[in-house]
Amino acid sequence: VTPERTFAARLEEVQALAEWVRTSANAEVTAAPEWDMFELAVVEAASNMISHALKGRPDETVRVTLSHGTGQLSVTLEDRGEPMPAGLLDDPPLPEPLAESGRGLWLIRQGSSEVSYARWGDINRLSLLLRLPG
Amino acid sequence: MIQVEQEEPVCVVVIESPRLDAARTPELRSALVSIAGGRSQLIIDLSQVDFIDSTALGGFISVLKALGSDGELALAGARPPVRRLLELTRLEQVMRLHPTLDEAKAAFDT
């Protein structure tokens, strides 16, 4: 069974989303040293969707799907918000230390082994993969 | 969410929320910037915080700027995942990180 759940598109829901991902993921993955940064990447991705793609649309939802593999976990988030500008996730830079914003995309990249984004009709589909070393 | 532990000689604010994310940071940022106004030194105790995201990092920068061009912000007691993120994003280049609140206070005394 592929774990799947839908959350209201509100920032207050992101903690519950992250907790659901953690409890639904393989213990092998959540126990890994890479997990904290991956969980942060998931939080940044969900917050980004809610704050940008779905901004001002709290009645919308974010659908989350998990896909397990040996030593890896893929988390896919989907929304029906505005499309992400092309290339935004290709190689986002780390902002200067005194920047007050702009670190989210960099953290999504930093915490994930792979990131992919696709637009299917009116759906944004953002997938984050954590692949454990070895 | 925050508690002002002491006002002098350097103001110490304890964050009482275990999680600083996009849902909580706007309120936190507003409160901390208000406290920082008119001061030049501030210590934030993060020992009760388990998780921070990019909005919290930006909030710390807002507080640093509210302290003025000669202001000093110290973060104390950050747990390993939080400290790692502060270092990874290079915030330790613009604010001090101390393992404990006592060490942060001592650093301002010297």
Task: Provide a descriptive summary of the structure in words.
- The complex is a heterodimer of chains A (134) and B (110).
- Chain A is α+β, with helices and mostly antiparallel strands.
- Helices cover 31% and strands 28% of the residues of chain A.
- Chain A has a 5-stranded antiparallel beta sheet, covered by helices on one side.
- The model of chain A has no long low-confidence stretch (mean pLDDT 95).
- With 110 residues, chain B is an alpha/beta fold.
- Helices cover 39% and strands 25% of the residues of chain B.
- Chain B contains 4 helices and 7 strands, in the order βββαββαβαβα.
- In chain B, helix 1 packs parallel to helix 2.
- Chain B starts with a strand and ends with a helix.
- Classes of the chains: A alpha+beta (134), B alpha/beta (110).
- The interface between A and B is medium-sized, with 23 and 23 residues.
Identify the notable features of this structure and list them briefly.
heterodimer, A: 134 residues, alpha+beta, 4 helices, B: 110 residues, alpha/beta, 5-stranded mixed beta sheet
Element layout with pairings:
The complex is a heterodimer of chains A (134) and B (110).
Chain A: E1 4-8, H1 14-24, H2 27-30, H3 35-53, E2 61-69, E3 72-79, H4 104-111, E4 114-120, E5 123-131
Antiparallel strand pairs in A: 1-2, 2-3, 3-5, 4-5
Helix pairs in contact in A: 1-3, 3-4
Chain B: E1 2-6, E2 11-15, E3 19-20, H1 25-36, E4 41-45, E5 51-52, H2 54-66, E6 72-76, H3 80-88, E7 96-98, H4 101-109
Parallel strand pairs in B: 2-4, 3-5, 4-6, 6-7
Antiparallel strand pairs in B: 1-2
In spatial order, strands of the major sheet of chain A run: 1-2-3-5-4
Order of helices and strands of chain B: EEEHEEHEHEH
Straight-line N-to-C gap of chain A: 26 Å
**H and E string of chain A:** EHHHEEHEE
First-last Cα distance of chain B:
30 Å
| Protein structure class of chain A | alpha+beta
Provide the residue-averaged pLDDT of chain A: 95
Question: What's the overall geometry of chain B?
Answer: globular
Count of extended strands of chain B: 7
Number of strand elements of chain A: 5
Uncertain runs of chain B with pLDDT below 50, 5 residues or more? Answer: none
Q: Number of helix segments of chain A? A: 4
Overall average pLDDT of chain B: 95
How much strand content do the residues of chain A show?
A: 25-35%
Low-confidence stretches of chain A: none
